[in-house]
Every structure is written in structure tokens, then in C-alpha cells.
Amino acid sequence: MAPVVAELCLGHAQHGIAAVYDRYSYLDEKRDALRRWEAHLLSVVAPPPDAGEKVVAMPAKRARAWA
User: Fold this and answer.
1) pTM exceeds 0.85 for this model
2) What is the three-class DSSP state of 46?
3) What is the pLDDT of residues 15-41, one digit of tens each?
4) Counting Cβ atoms within 10 Å, is residue 62 exposed (0-12), middle (13-18) or buried (19+)?
5) CB count in 10 Å sphere of residue 47
6) Coil, strand or helix at 34
7) pLDDT at residue 7 above 70?
């Protein structure tokens, strides 16, 4: 992914020459980047069913102590 796409996804404005001449909206590139980010986040918070063997449940007593 191009750095400009990441910056635009974060809502950062372009500066200098790029702000003047680069008028392309990067909509397709931003859509792709955000879909890939969504897939990554979903894999972290809701791992696929076959990853169940790698997930270890915390004992309830210990989990409450951290809350």
C-alpha cells in the first residue's frame, strides 16, 4: 500500500506539491486498504473456528482480578 493511501485513510491532508497537483481521490485504493484492515481486525477479535486449539480460556477468578 502506498503511504499516501494510508495517510488519506487516517484523514491526513496532503501537503506541498502533492496537495496542489495530486487531485486523484484514491477511492478504490482506500476501500481496499480499509477492507484489508477490517479483515485483520476480525481475525484478531473473532479468530476462525479452526484456531480454537490455540485459544486458551482464562480462569474466571483471574479474569475478574484484571477487570
Assistant:
1) no
2) coil
3) 999 999 999 999 999 999 999 999 999
4) exposed
5) 12
6) helix
7) yes
Which residue bears the cell 477479535?
45
Which pLDDT does position 26 carry in this prediction? 95
- All three cell numbers of 40: 485483520
The three grid cell numbers given for residue 11, joined into one nine-digit string = 484523514
Strand boundaries in the chain, DSSP class E:
none
8 A C-beta contact, residue 5 and residue 30: yes
Sign of CA dihedral 34, 37, 41, 46: positive
Give the pLDDT of residue 48: 67
Reduce the DSSP state of residue 53 to 3 states and report it.
Answer: helix
Hey, what's the cell of 50? 479452526
2 within 8 A of 29, measured Cβ to Cβ:
yes
